[in-house]
Structure formats: C-alpha cells, structure tokens
Design goal:
Blueprint lengths: L2 H9 L6 H20 L5 E15 L3 E12 L5 E9 L4 H13 L4 E7 L5 H8 L4 E4 L1 H9 L4 H15 L4 H15 L4 H9 L14 H4 L3 H14 L8 H19 L11 H9 L1
Parallel strand pairs: 1-4, 4-5
Antiparallel strand pairs: 1-2, 2-3
Helix pairs in contact: 2-11, 3-4, 6-7, 7-8
Length: 279
C-alpha cells in the first residue's frame, strides 16, 4: 500500500483540518495520474477484463461502469493494468482501454478472458490480433441456467462441468457432444449456442497447471466484489475524481500485495509459457 494510502487509513474516522484534507486530496490526485500513466511490462500471459458498477453523482446519482483489466505476467505475479469509468459497458470503451494498455508498453498477450460482451473479441483483436480469447465458462453456465426450467438447472449445470473439467480439449469436445445429444430435444437453442461458440475451449491450449485459473473471470470478479464491498462504506461518490481516488487506492494495494506472489499453477507452467511466447 502506498504512503498516502497508509495516511488515509490512519486518519480515517478522526478529525483533521481542511488544509490536511486538501493536501491529502492533491497527493492522491497525483497518485491517480501516476497510476494511469505508468509503464507496463511487455508481455502478459493473460489479461482478465470485467466491469463492475458503482454509484457516482453527476447531475444525479446513478451507477456507472468501472472497467478493470488485471494481468498476469510470465512470472505469475498479477496487477491491475488499467481502468476507466463510463456510464455503460460497451465494446468501444473496452477497445480504448486495451489500446491504452498497448500504448503503455504491452506488446504481447497470450490470452484475454472476459464475460463474452458482444463485440469485445473484435475490440481485443483490433489491438492484439494474435491474442487468443476465452469466454468465461461460468458466465456461459449462468446464461444457460436462465434459459432452462428450474427442474433441469441442477442436472444441466452438473453436465456443463464436464466440459471444463476434462483432461484435454478432445475429451472436452466429446463431453460437449454428449451434452448436446442429451439436451437438444428439450433445449435446442441452448445446445446450438454452445456448439456455435468458438471460444469455449481456448483454455485447453494452455498448460494444464493454469487451466483452472483461465477458464473463467473468477479471479477478477472476486476482486471486483471486494471493491464493491469497500465502496459501500460510502453511500455514493460525489464526483468522478473521488471515485478515481478510491479506486486507485484499492488498485495500488492490490498490486503491492501480489507483486511478488506467483499465482497458483504459473510456476509449474513457466517453461511451457515461455515457449508459447517465443512461438
């Protein structure tokens, strides 16, 4: 956690003067700009993209989309790469954020993972044309569960697990065929959408040791839930600047925490991943 973040933590809940508030605000504002403009590593194994919604006051108070990108480096360490705020989530804004990551030094990403927002894959490939893409399997399951009868949900969700718990892609494709055969009469549109999805099994192209970390956006979603939980201490953010200061304090703490920690499985996969980059 940064020095200013420690200062805020120590002083939270205590009386302090308007000048102190002004000094703290200026320091954190400078920290926000430094965070946004800092250089990034050249290569990332994967980048997770997800948006969460927080209340911001402009003319009125409404929840706006906070776009967040978290990357995992070759050594397994992870960091928040970039963020932006917009009224709604769109592929166009994601394209701008991904372009910002590229402009700050990222030249290669092996895999992007997101919830499958329409157009987001094209946004990614417009900046990183060689990157692979994985649609979040958990989101796929959630979407399907809303399209089937309640009485069938448990069985269908259990059958879906066989698709992302397979030993390899061939076994996963066999599991998909079995799923389609079992459910196509009852839910033709559901099975057709699965069969037509080209981004279900991308994660099987990666080392087995890291697959459970990259078949979904769970890693970034859990972080976003933490942000929302901390943000509830405020009823609303009075303006975007105050939201920026809050977010960057959270991001800096996250980056400090995981700067020297290797995410599970990445240490075992290091040699294989190095070959994927060189290839």
């Amino acid at each position: 956690m940064s020095e200013i973040s420690h200062l805020i933590e120590r002083m939270y809940g205590h009386h302090y003067t308007p000048q102190t508030i002004s000094n703290m605000t200026q320091a954190v504002t400078e920290e926000v700009e430094a965070f946004r403009q800092r250089s990034l590593s050249e290569r990332y194994v994967c980048v997770y993209l997800d948006a969460t919604f927080l209340p911001v006051k402009r003319e009125t108070v409404t929840k706006e989309a906070v776009y967040i990108a978290v990357g995992i480096r070759e050594d397994g360490s992870k960091e928040v790469l970039a963020y932006t705020v917009a009224p709604t989530e769109s592929a166009y804004v994601w394209k701008e954020l991904i372009g910002d990551i590229h402009a700050r030094g990222v030249t290669e990403v092996l895999l992007f993972i997101s919830d499958g927002l329409p157009g987001i894959k094209d946004s990614i490939h417009s900046v990183f044309p060689k990157a692979k893409y994985q649609t979040c399997f958990i989101h796929v399951g959630r979407n399907i569960s809303h399209k089937v009868r309640v009485s069938d949900r448990k069985a269908i969700c259990e059958d879906l697990k066989s698709l992302y718990r397979a030993t390899d892609k061939a076994e996963a494709e066999q599991a998909l065929d079995a799923f389609i055969e079992k459910w196509k009469k009852s839910y033709a549109k559901v099975t057709q959408s699965l069969k037509a999805n080209p981004d279900l099994f991308t994660f099987y192209d990666f080392p087995e040791a890291i697959r459970r970390s990259i078949y979904s956006t769970n890693l970034i979603e859990s972080f976003n839930k933490q942000i929302k939980r901390y943000s509830k201490r405020k009823e609303q953010f009075p303006n975007e600047d105050s939201l920026d200061r809050f977010l960057v304090t959270q991001f800096e703490a996250y980056n400090q925490r995981f700067a020297t920690r290797c995410h599970i499985g990445f240490d075992q996969a290091r040699a294989e991943l190095a070959e994927m980059f060189s290839g």
